[in-house]
Specification:
single chain; ten-stranded mixed sheet; two-stranded antiparallel sheet; 14 helices
Amino acid sequence: MFVFRLGARRQIRFRLQTLEALTRLKALTGQDLPSVAHGDTLENYLARVDPSELQKIPVAMVRALLEKRRLEKFRLLDKYYRVAVDMSGHLYLGNQPSAFTEGCLTQTAQDGQTLYYRPVCEAKRVTRTGLALSVGSEFVENVKRGDRSDEQYKQDCEKKATRRLFPRLKKALSGFALCALLDSLHCDEPTFQMCQANDWRFIITLKEGALPSVMQEFEALKAQSPETQFAAVTHEGRLTFSWVNGIAYGKRALNVFECIVTRDNEKPTRFVWVTDIEVTRELCQALSQEGGRQRWRIENEGFRTQKHGGFEMEHAYAKHPVPAKNFYLLLQIAHILSQMFECYCQGKAVVKHDFGSLRNLAHDLLESWRRDPIPDPQRLRTFQDEAIQIRLDTS
C-alpha cells in the first residue's frame, strides 16, 4: 500500500485484489494465501503488534547499510554520520473528543476550537544527496499520572520525546560516530549533556532568544576577529562565514559559526549554529553546507515527501493509537525501500525525466504488480537471489 503510494487503506480492495497480485504475494511470502488481506483485517492484526518490535525493522535496514559501509562516503568531515531529529504530526483526529483522542496533544484553531493530534519525534539518517532514512521514532502522547479516571494527564512534548529517543538511538547505532543535527528548541544544557554522554557531536541551530549570552559574546568577538571570517562564491550566491570558538556557557565551552547567503536582488539569509566541533577556516564551510544546513532534509525529503508525495502520512489509516503507530512505522519502511528503488533507477532526476514524477514510478510499479503476466515461480526465486547494484550517490 505504501510502496505503491495508494494513499488509503481502502485502496487495497480496489487496486490489489487481482490474481497476479495474489500470486506475487504468495511467492514473496512463501505462504499459500487464500486472498490479499482486506484493509480492516490488516488494522485488526496491527492492533496486536507491539510497535517497538516493528520499529526494529527500519533500524535494522539502515544499520545494514552502515555495516556494509554503503553510507560511508556521506559522512560529515569524513567521520560523522548525520542524524537529524525533528517532530511532525502524523495523525489528526479533528475537534471531537472520543476514545481515540485520549492522550492526544491539542492545539487551538483560529476559530477557538480544540484540535486533537498525535505527533511523532523522528530521527533520520540524512545525506547531502537527499536520502532521509528512518532510524528511530518516538511517539509523543500524554500519559495519565495515575490509574484513577479523574487523574490529570502528564503533558508530553518534543523535548521529552527526544530525551527518550536518544538512548534508543545510541543502542541502535552503537559503534558509529554520529553528529546530531537539531533545531533551536534543543539549545540547552540537558541536550549538550546527552550528546556528550553518548559521545556524539552536535550542530544545533542558534536563533535569537536561545542562549542569549552565547549569541551576545559571539557578536562581540566576531567584530573583533576579522581573521575568523571569509567569503566564498557558489551557485547559491555569495556565502560569508564567521566563527568563534570557546565561548563559555556554564562549565562548558561552545563553538559558534554562521553563514550569510547573499543572492542577487534578495535580502541576505543568515544561519547560525552552535557545536562542540572546533571550527577552523578549513572546516567552517563544510560544517555549514554539509552539516547545519542539511537538517532541513528531514523536513523536505522526509516529512514533506511522506505527507505530499503519495504516502499520505497524515491520513487516518487507523484511529486507535496502536495500529496508527504501526501504520506509521510501515510507512517508514516503505519510504526506505522507495528511496533504494529510486537510486536503483539512477536517482530522482532520471526518474522524473523517464516517468514524469516519483509518484508515476510508484504507479507504474503498481500496474506491473497488478497486471503483468504471472512469472514462473522458479524464475522469480532465481531473480530474488540475483545480486543487483544500487548506487546511492546519484547526484
